[in-house]
Amino acid sequence: MVSQIGLTSPALSPLCCFPSRARRRRFSLLKRKSFAMASLSEDPVREWMLSGGKATQITKIRPVGGGCINLASRYDTDVGPFFVKTNRSIGPSMFEGEALGLNAMYETNTIKVPKPYKVGSFPTGGSYIIMEFIEFGLSRDQSKLGRKLGEMHKAGKSETGFGFDVENTIGSTPQINTWTADWIEFYGEHRLGYQLKLALDQYRDTTVYEKGQRLVKSMRPLFENIVIEPCLLHGDLWSGNISADKNGEPVILDPACYYGHNEAEFGMSWCAGFGGSFYNSYFEVMPKQPGFEKRRDLYKLYHYLNHYNLFGSGYRSSAMSIIDDYLRILKA
């Protein structure tokens, strides 16, 4: 579902699909052929690298591990490598949202993210994003990741409320980020409510929709006696979007950023592998608030619903179980 930057790594989830070796070979040959034939005006990626990127020559183009949505490539130049994602089917809005999220995280000067350089369109259709290439290492320190993530949440705050300046995507699902003053309203309408409506429209799943709406209307007691600040969230923090550079510094990538309750960042923890050292370090920076454990599954629900809408009925039972548990607890 996502692309990797740097060293190609094995799939970390059955939902992460990588191009086959044959497909990568065909793609590589095609890229070399088109690169040799294209003029600057026909290839805006090459044009930027030889102007804004300060390169004088591009020495090699090769595919790297990617996801189902975009093609990912490493461009080697005489000023160093660049990472490029392309999609020949869609306009630049998805990549613009990604770039704004990456830049927002980058500007907190906390956890390492690839710096975005350029987003644009191809003359023949489709779009691209050019960003910093980060060489991955093998060491992954969960304690350091927890601390750095907490520092990003602490530093990245919004005075506007909960939301983001643009709509973006979670996987390939639109993510609505309309600025909202109240977090419970935002999460209920633009996160759970939106996914519930998708399930109704796509599968005619009236049971999930109606029970989910009951939960949305009754979930406010789960947030009593806590302070909720709009923190900058990565938004899609699972194992495939987490790595480390050659020096062991944590790196996060492929965001679905918005400003929200910091606990919502752990909604993908069911496939992120966060352990005790991660949470201990995180809560040293962002102290745990009362009822954290009671809200944890509520934030997982958004992502289970999204996986249900993207990948089918295999995720329905997990979403339904969470909804039923909360309806029983809340007596709704």
Automatic annotation (TrEMBL):
It is an enzyme of class 2 (transferase). It is found in: Plastid, Chloroplast. It comes from the Eukaryota. Pfam families: Fructosamin_kin. It catalyses: N(6)-D-ribulosyl-L-lysyl-[protein] + ATP = N(6)-(3-O-phospho-D-ribulosyl)-L-lysyl-[protein] + ADP + H(+); N(6)-(D-erythrulosyl)-L-lysyl-[protein] + ATP = N(6)-(3-O-phospho-D-erythrulosyl)-L-lysyl-[protein] + ADP + H(+). Its main location: plastid. Keywords: ATP-binding, Chloroplast, Kinase, Nucleotide-binding, Plastid, Transferase. Transmembrane segments: none annotated. GO terms for molecular function: ATP binding; kinase activity; protein-ribulosamine 3-kinase activity. One of its GO terms (cellular component) is chloroplast. The keyword Plastid applies. Its EC number is 2.7.1.172. The keyword Transcription regulation does not apply. Belongs to the fructosamine kinase family. Initiates a process leading to the deglycation of proteins. Phosphorylates low-molecular-mass and protein-bound erythrulosamines and ribulosamines, but not fructosamines or psicosamines, on the third carbon of the sugar moiety. Protein-bound erythrulosamine 3-phosphates and ribulosamine 3-phosphates are unstable and decompose under physiological conditions. This is Protein-ribulosamine 3-kinase, chloroplastic.
